[in-house]
Amino acid sequence: MSNITTHVLDTSLGRPAAGVSVTLEAQDGAGDWHVVGQGETDADGRLKSLAVAAAAAGVYRLTFDTELYFAARGVETFYPLAVVVFRVRDASEHHHVPLLVSPFGYSTYRGS
After folding, report:
1. Fewer beta carbons below 10 Å: N end or C end of the chain?
2. In this structure, are residues 27 and 33 in contact, taking their beta carbons and an 8 Å threshold?
3. Global pTM?
4. Domain of 62?
5. Torsion sign across C-alpha atoms 61, 62, 68, 70
6. How many domains, in total, are found in the chain?
7. pLDDT 10s digit of each residue in the chain, 112 long?
8. Rounded Cα–Cα distance for residues 17 and 1 (Å)
């Protein structure tokens, strides 16, 4: 399992958000972004194997395709993408970054 994981909860429905496309990027020393993993949330809204390798210390960006998720349900959304940038300080730790999403808002936190 990757040391960076995520899950998505659809707060407008009160249940996991299955089928959300997620991209994980790492920032290099020049400030450029490079894709290091991607996938889609499962029936439980989880993406357990996100990175192709264990994440090193550095800055990462998770991009959630919320527009595609809501469009599949016939719902318009104000935020076509939810983007979360975070820092990994200790590469030996597990970093879980959940997303709570609705058509008109989203929030995130450092999970466990």
Report:
1. C
2. yes
3. 0.94
4. 4-108
5. negative
6. 1
7. 468 999 999 999 999 999 999 999 999 999 999 999 999 999 999 998 787 667 789 999 999 999 999 999 999 999 999 999 999 999 888 899 999 999 999 999 999 8
8. 21
